[in-house]
Structure formats: structure tokens, C-alpha cells
What does this fold into?
Amino acid sequence: MIRRTIILGIAALLAVQAIGQSEAAMNQFIDNLMAKMTLREKIGQLNLNSIGRNSTGTFQNSDAEQKIKAGDLGGILNVCGAEAVREYQKLAVKQSRLGIPLLTGLDVVHGYKTILPIPLAQACSWDTAAICRGAEVAAEECTADGINWNYSPMVDVSAEIRWGRVAEGNGEDPFLSGIIAATLVKGYQGNEPGQYRLLSCVKHYAGYGASEAGRDYNMVDISRVMLYNRYLNPYKAAVKAGVGSVMSSFNLIEGESSTQNKWLLTDVLRDQWGFKGFLVTDYGTINENVRNGMGTQYETAVNAFNAGTDMDMCCDAFVKHLAEAVKRGDVKESDIDTACRRVLVAKYKLGLFRDPYKFCRPKDYKRVVYSKEHREVARQLAAESFVLLRNEGNLLPLSKNQKIALIGPLGDSKRNLIGCWSANDEPDSYISLYQAMQEAVKGHGSVTCAQGSNVSDNTEVNKAVGYRGRAISVGDNDQLKNEALRLAREADVIVCAMGEGSEMTGESASLANPQLGGPQRRLLEALLQLHKPLVLLNFAGRPTIMKWESEHVPAILQVWFGGSEAGAAICDVLFGDKVPTGKLVNTFPQQLGQVPMYYNHISTGRPVSETNKGFKRYSSNYIDVTNAPVYPFGYGLSYTTYHYSAPTLSAPEMSLDGKVTASVTVTNTGQRDGDEIVQLYIHDLAAHIARPVRELKGFRRIHLKAGESQTVQFELDRSLLEYFDREGNAQLEPGEVKIYIGPNSRDTQETSLMLR
It folds into this structure.
């Protein structure tokens, strides 16, 4: 044992020495390179242009080749394909003076070709191992096709269901989102010290999920206490995981653009958290600051740079103005050197100086894209992301030995299975839900399919569905409904594939009324009048208003947008080959007027319990609706059932720097094996700053066979219990802390811990 310990110690020492030598070699290389660079060439490394077909902004560059040759571009984005990227790299390496290779960026938000579930859905799996493997799949595919820089993960905490970009995040909880942020960074970048598998970029820093009225590009007005305790943790977690780059956000914070907010970009990100990578703007934000009334382009460029921004995306503002700013004394040349070095370090860690074409590997691309292994990863992750919201009379799972009518606009719309941010999908490589169901019941039962209705009565909504070739045909609603009813009458069971189209969520897809579209709702009502078993598969990229559905539809499976293997994954769960395990990461409100609604709210000085049935005068509630959600954070049913014992603590008291273990025994009391997600919450009753009524501070995903029990333990220490003041200082005071454990944020049992 002693000998093994010595060997391990020597190995660790050698690893540290190797890392040190590697870093020294990198620094020497970059020192030598920068000694040859002109000021103009250094500034060129800070310039990023979109020159490809996958643009999501308003600016397209027409003279990129000349800029690359002149050394005026450090990176490009939205160029896809190994051969195309290779040609641009050749321009940089062969025809620019110093031959510095390019960063090649893209938003690979949930898969490159093999499309994974949208990030919101992935978070509902609470399966960090599966999420990490999904990120590795995305990295394996895009890095063979020329991409070396990924604008992901998006970690904006949001309870604003009108905001389309809630689909890209991990829900409303900062603790869970932080764990997933770190997981994704590791999945993209890898664990090998000193280099990146794929450069990850965490976004949007910071607070974008709190955009007023849920409108994209809108302002944010939140206190620093709220920022530190609710919004910043996922970004911090990504930084601690070693993320190589950070993207600032579109929004204003404290009346100032995030892109030129020195407190945010330098004081917090670099000085408090120790971020060493480079910071890039979002698409065109320096120009947007001009439109926000924050000065000329020269002034907004100088302000953004001096605040801590290293790279300008799609404005050419740095290359136009920073050299002049140095002459005027508005910018220090030493700061340009620092920013340039950060970009060059990223390129070095990617291995681009050793081989500029290392990410252009057509043979590897053909081997990995839509491979059997990758499709299985996507299928399994999709199945884990679905959330069973209702199952009256154990209607689910369905028998395959039935005549099934698949009704609804999403039933046979292949490209609307996969969700937003999936422009690189290849529809010929995957199948629709209808095709998947036909395959699943082959030799047993039968499936017929009808669209049944338009997505919406609103013309603009129907047009939005059709963005990027995702159109669902628009017809006469009465004719569509009559055809659906005819098929439904002939069936034993009805499966409704309804909800949103893929492009109704994501960037520039805010919705004032996030609920089932009028014609779909009318069709659903008519189908229920047939009094046949009916299952609703709810497709969405956000939590939606589902109070009526929760009261009238016997079985509801929230399937989000499950990616290119969604059809098969839905069948896996629908027919019981897999047991649903997903849990919500956002609260589902009863009414839009409750939005933003989130479980980890402050109680207020006049609280009203969610269980209160009537209106309580002079208290914090509504006259016309209770404070309760339809479905709480962490909620999700299964095809089996679980019993939780009362939680216990290893000690009733804990010093402020001590540790205590919380335990609970969970028993599978049903007839099926299954996975349960055990959740631990706290409520600090003695904090200087008011703390939320519940805060997630731990979870365990466990597998239990039918009848099996398992004791789950959570270790509590200062790092889990503390909170932050407005300066970002960690705080924890003596007093009582409530500990809650259960299957969701509402249905918990509690115990108390005294801090001394």
C-alpha cells in the first residue's frame, strides 16, 4: 500500500511538471509570435465575423477573404463543412503575413448532426453522465467537420416562460443549472490539461433570462443580491470547470450594457472568479449599444474593450477604432496585448498552431455522424427527458396490440421533433413520430395519422412555425378536424401530438400567450367527447399554461423537443419499453398572470400557502387564482411508485464550518423497476438577507428494482448552506435551517438543523 501511494505521488508530480513545461512552452511560443505582430495584427485577432449560411443575426460579411489575408480576423462563425473551413484556414495560414490560424465558431447547442433533446429537456433528465456524453457526441461530430469553437452552454436561469430562449437553458434553479453548466463544459472541452477537445463558450453573461416581459434583446433590472444568489452561479460553475471563453449578453444591467459593464466583466468574472480565458460579445452588440443611446461606435467600442471585452462579434468596431484609441490614449496598448494573448492561448490549446487543419477530417466525419452509438445516446437521453405529468387509471403505458389514432400537427412533422438551434440536421437521416409508431407496433396493432388542425389561429404564429423549413401545412380547420375525428372513432386509443413547432421557441421566438393554440385546443376538446382513452404528447420548448389539460386529459407526457431520435424515444416510453424518469426544471403556472413563477421565491412578510384555497385579504395572493402551480419544480410521475421515509440528520446541530449528513430511505413500492430523482432542499430561517422558501441543494438519481429500498445520503456543509451579499461575499449565520427531502419541491418531508 505504501509503495502504491509513493508511485501515485510520483505520477502526480510528473503530471504537474509536464503541465508546467507545456505551459512554459506555450508562453514562449506566444511571446515569440507577439513580438512579430504589429498593433494592427493584434487587434485583428480580436475581430470575429459571420460569413456562412447559418447566421442568426443581421450582419453578413462580404469581404472576409481580404480581411483574413490582411490579418484582420481572428475567427469566423457560421461556416460549416470541413472543406469550406479548410479553405478559410488556408487563406489565414498561407496568405496572411504571420499565418495565424482561425477560430471557427458555431452554435452547437444540442447536437451537430445527431440532434439531442433541447437543453431544457436534457436538464429534465437530471442525469449528468448522460448530459456529458451528449456533449461529447456533439463535440465529436462538429470537430470532424471544421468547427473548433462552440457557443454553448447557455446557462441563463429563467422563470420567464414567454421568453423563447428558455428552451436553451437548464430551467429556473441556479444550483442544478450550475452542475449542468460544469458538466457540459467538461463534455465539450475534455479533461486533458493544457488543451481543448472543443473550445466551449458559456453564455449569455449575465442575467439575460430575466429580460423584461420575456422579450428577446430587452433590458434587465435586478439587484446585485439577486444576481449573486439567483443568476450568476451557473456562469461561475462554468468558469470553475475551466471554460475557455465567455459570451456577454445583449441586455442592459443597472442601465448599462452587459458588453461594457466593467463590474460584471472584470470585477466579478476575472477578479472574483479568476477567469483566464477570453470574452466575446454577442452578435453585433457593440453596434446595438449605439442604438441604445450609449455613444458613437468609437465610444461604444472603447467602452466595451476597457470594460473587459476581448473580441468583437460582427461589428468590425475594434479593427476600425482601437488603433486610433491607442493614439488618443483612450486604450492602453498593453491591454490590447493582454486580450490578443488570451485569444492566441485558446488557439494554442486547440492545437491549431501545430495543425491548422486538425478539425477538418472528412473520414472521421463520415464515421461518427449519425453513427449507431451516437443515435443511441440521443435516444436514451430523449427518453430520460420526458416528464409524465398525468396518468389517470394507469392509462400509460399503452399496449401495442391496439388500433391507435395519432392525431395532431406534430404527429407526422419530422423537422418539428428536434427543436430550435438545429439548422444542421439532415431530415433524411431520421424518422417522424408516425413512422416510429408504425415501426413500434408492427406485427401487433396499427396506427393511422391525421394532422387534425393548424397549429394556431394566429397567422404570425403559423408563419413562425415554418422558419428554416419547418412548416406545418395550413388548411381548413373544420376539414382537418373532421378527418381526425373519423380516424379517432375507428381507433381503440387516441394519441394526440400537439403543442408548439420547433421554431416557436429559441432566439427571437417570444410568445405572449404560451399555451396550446386555439385550433389544437378545440380539436382536443372534440376528441375527448368521444370518451376513448386519450394520451396527450405535449411538444414544447418552454413550460406552457396547462391548467385545463391537467383537469381534463387523462394522460399527459411532456416530450419537449427530443431531437433526431425523438420518435423512437417517445415510443420507448409510450409503450413501456422504458419507464419515464424525467422531472421538471421549471414551475408550470396556472395562469399567465402568475409569470414569472418559480419555486425558490421569497415568502414575503404576508405569505399565503400554495395549499390555501381561497383569497386572503391583505396578504400576498391573487383574488382570482391561488398561488399554487399546476406542476411544481422537480415534479414527474413514473410507471411505478416510491415511498420516502422521514429524513434524518447525523446530528441535530452543526458548527458554521462543520458537516452533517442528511439521510432518507426510498422504496420502490410499484411493480416496475425504475429510476427516481431524490431531491434535497433547504430554507435558511436566520439569514441577514431573506432567503427563498426552498432552495435545491442536492439530488441523487437512483435505480430501484420493484420492491427494493435504498438509503440516500447528502452531506451538508458551509458551501451548500451559504448565500451571498451584494458584494459577492459568502455569508452564513447561526440559526435554524429547514431541511426538506422528497420527489419534488412540493411533496417533501422535513427536519431541522441548528447552526451554532
Observations:
- The chain is about 35% helix and 15% strand.
- The radius of gyration is 27 Å.
- Residues 485 and 527 are 7 Å apart (CA to CA).
- The longest helix spans residues 2-36.
